[in-house]
Amino acid sequence: MSDVLSGHFLTKHFGHTTALAGVDITIRQEEAVAIMGPSGSGKSTLLHCLAGIMKPDEGEVHLMGHRVDNLGERRRSELRRTRFGFVFQFGQLLPELPAEENVALPLMLGGVTRTQAVRQAREWFAPLGLQGMETRRPGELSGGQAQRVAIARALVSRPAVVFADEPTGALDQTTGQETMRLLVEATKHNEACLVVVTHDPNVASWCDRTVEVRDGRLTAQQATAYTTVLP
Ligand code: ADP
Ligand code: ADP
């Protein structure tokens, strides 16, 4: 399997705090990786550096063989829009837009016409169990449904990598598990990688592999559910 995304010796300081102290991580084709660890250990900082939201102080990020951490803000922003998808804990859907337009938004930002973007967006509703929800506004959806709309929006641009930061954090256990199942299935079906930050071992168990961060370092790597080959 080829490497899609990798971080090499990622280091990040905030004042006197060392958030990342030289992390090496490689994500392979269609792999789902969970990042676990205590609060404040550097999980979100690692995700933000890999996703081009934040520049590491030292180290490099490579996407499909190209170095991307040193690109300017405009190019990194374009990269996030075209190559990456994002799912957050909550509050990421625009409340005034119907679900289908929320999903269509990344396409419209990329220059696709509204009609065409909404047509493409609608194709994601049935596979994610959202039939009939197309014209509802986020406030008219359950928490689990809203997260499935967010998953559709993350995938609609056919990204290489989906980043999810505590994607089930606002959901009850049962809904969270169902949401993770759909997230992993949908990313694999679309040949994307998945990087999930979570506190919850049940969430991590849906991934191929878990890495643990402590004090800005990776401490352990375990194969989980699907069991892929470790480096
Ligand atoms: P986690 O996601 O594991 O909770 P973070 O990556 O958010 O951890 O944070 C790692 C460390 O860096 C923590 O000590 C946190 O307080 C600090 N930190 C993160 N972001 C910032 C920031 N923008 N400014 C200052 N300190 C930060
Ligand atoms: P643009 O500037 O091209 O509109 P943004 O930088 O606002 O793009 O965002 C690109 C992607 O990164 C979006 O999906 C957005 O939600 C996500 N993103 C941006 N900033 C953050 C952040 N601080 N934390 C988490 N995700 C972010």
Automatic annotation (TrEMBL):
Domain ABC transporter: 5-231
PROSITE patterns: ABC_TRANSPORTER_1, ABC_TRANSPORTER_2
InterPro entries: AAA+_ATPase, ABC_transporter-like_ATP-bd, ABC_transporter-like_CS, ABC_transpr_LolD-like, MacB-like_ATP-bd, P-loop_NTPase
Top-level taxon of origin: Bacteria
Residues in the signal sequence: none
GO cellular component, one term: plasma membrane
Listed SUPFAM superfamilies: P-loop containing nucleoside triphosphate hydrolases
This protein's UniProt keywords: ATP-binding, Nucleotide-binding, Transport
Gene3D superfamilies on file: P-loop containing nucleotide triphosphate hydrolases
Record-linked CDD domains: ABC_MJ0796_LolCDE_FtsE
Organism from which the protein derives: Nonomuraea soli
A molecular function (GO) term: ATP hydrolysis activity
Protein name according to UniProt: Putative ABC transport system ATP-binding protein
